[in-house]
Write a structure and sequence with these properties.
Layout lengths: L1 E10 L2 E7 L3 E6 L6 H13 L18 E10 L2 E10 L5 E4 L2 E2 L12 E4 L5 H4 L2 H15 L3 H23 L8 H40 L6 E6 L7 E2 L7 H14 L1 H7 L10 E6 L2 E2 L6 H20 L8 E5 L7 H11 L4 E6 L12 E6 L2 E4 L1
Parallel strand pairs: 3-14, 3-15, 8-13, 13-14
Antiparallel strand pairs: 1-2, 1-4, 4-5, 5-6, 6-7, 9-10, 9-11, 11-12, 15-16
Helix pairs in contact: 3-5, 4-5, 4-7, 5-6, 5-8
């Protein structure tokens, strides 16, 4: 799989850009602040419907414009697909595939698969649990697009349940809401159990690729391990453990909800569920967060992305995901640069951004596109 054409209109700093791309390696070269990352961000957005730099869509629309357009042509096995997304300020976005509208924008997810690594990914190691949940859920949806609906339904039920708990927290008695709360409990437990099961299964598949990538990036640096830390009692487990069935997780979820009922009613918020889970990354006997050096943290974050790449490429659906390395090499020492280059050189398509072309190892020599003041010039 590779992107053969990128067209953007009023996206970030660009009024309009049309780029023809090839399989293999392409490097976008230009000084910081010239718009390199905006180009690969658009490709990543067409894949995940999210940005690796901002949490909302509003900053993606060029200042003064009412909407932005992203068009990506994807070559996948023996077919070509055109993905089009209209990002609209203050309204629901719209999308088309091969010029035909689709009912829900999220149906776009999974057609183009990308794995994007950027300096922001240090948050996977050093940041909050929400950063790691986002990582695992985006990969989960890329591997199984149906999970986008499960996640959306879980978030909807969670919002409704929180609203009910909040109203109970301000009332004199909670007895009147108990029957309604039980209904939301059942829905939350069913959807939450399915999400937890899928996360655990994904972590089990990630464990070996992540460990293998870390051993290559940091030879002699010890072992990396992943584990799921859950707010549901009895559901925390290392990635190497057997994955519990959905019914087992639902029963654990329901019993924990009952045990936490008084706390939830007092606080007016749901304290149990996958929205409070974390992915624990360990190096040897210690958690990476708080213990890993800067170099080890980089290697951990890279290993998580390279593991994701291996998980997606193992799918029997028409090729490798597109690998995007956004301003990565300037942050790595020479040894990690060389080892990373050797690991990714054979990917079907690698898109790299760099302020200085010399930062990119010779193993990744390929097409080059200069970006200067919003002008994009293929070399």
């Amino acid at each position: 799989m590779y992107v053969s054409r990128l067209s953007i209109v009023d996206f970030r700093s660009y009024v309009e850009v049309l780029l023809e791309l090839e399989a293999g390696i392409t490097t976008f070269v230009g000084r910081n602040g010239q718009g390199k990352t905006n180009l690969v961000e658009a490709i990543g957005y067409a894949s995940s419907l999210g940005s690796h730099r901002v949490a909302t869509d509003a900053p993606l629309i060029r200042n003064g414009a009412e909407r932005a357009l992203v068009r990506v042509e994807v070559q996948r096995a023996d077919r070509t697909q055109l993905l089009e997304i209209e990002i609209v300020a203050g309204r629901a976005n719209r999308a088309r595939v091969n010029r035909s509208p689709i009912p829900r924008v999220r149906e776009l997810v999974g057609i183009l698969q990308t794995v994007l690594f950027a300096p922001e990914d240090l948050a996977l190691v050093k940041g909050d649990p929400s950063d790691r949940r986002r990582y695992i859920d985006e990969l989960l949806t890329a591997r199984n697009p149906r999970m986008a609906g499960v996640r959306a339904d879980y978030d909807r039920v969670l919002k409704q349940r929180n609203a009910l708990l909040k109203s109970a927290a301000t009332a004199r008695s909670s007895s009147s809401i108990e029957p309604t709360l039980v209904v939301w409990d059942e829905q939350l437990a069913q959807l939450g159990a399915e999400l937890m099961h899928s996360r655990a299964a994904l972590l089990a598949d990630l464990a070996q690729p992540v460990a293998g990538a870390y051993s290559q990036l940091a030879p002699g640096g010890g072992d990396i391990a992943l584990a799921l830390a859950s707010s549901v009692e009895g559901a925390s487990l290392p990635a190497t453990s057997a994955v519990p069935e959905v019914d087992e997780l639902r029963a654990l979820f329901e019993s924990t909800i009952v045990a936490k009922r008084r706390e939830e009613l007092a606080r007016g918020v749901t304290v149990v569920g996958p929205h409070r889970d974390d992915v624990v990354i360990s190096l040897g006997a210690n958690p990476a967060k708080g213990y890993a050096s800067h170099g080890e943290s980089w290697s951990c974050a890279l290993s998580l992305r390279l593991g994701a790449y291996e998980v997606l490429r193992s799918l029997d659906d028409g090729g490798d995901p597109v690998l995007i390395l956004d301003d990565v090499f300037a942050e790595l020492d020479s040894g990690r640069r060389q080892r990373l280059a050797q690991m990714v050189a054979g990917a079907e398509q690698v898109l790299i951004t760099a302020a200085v072309a010399q930062d990119v190892p010779a193993e990744l020599e390929g097409a080059q596109i200069l970006v200067d003041g919003g002008t994009v010039t293929p070399q």
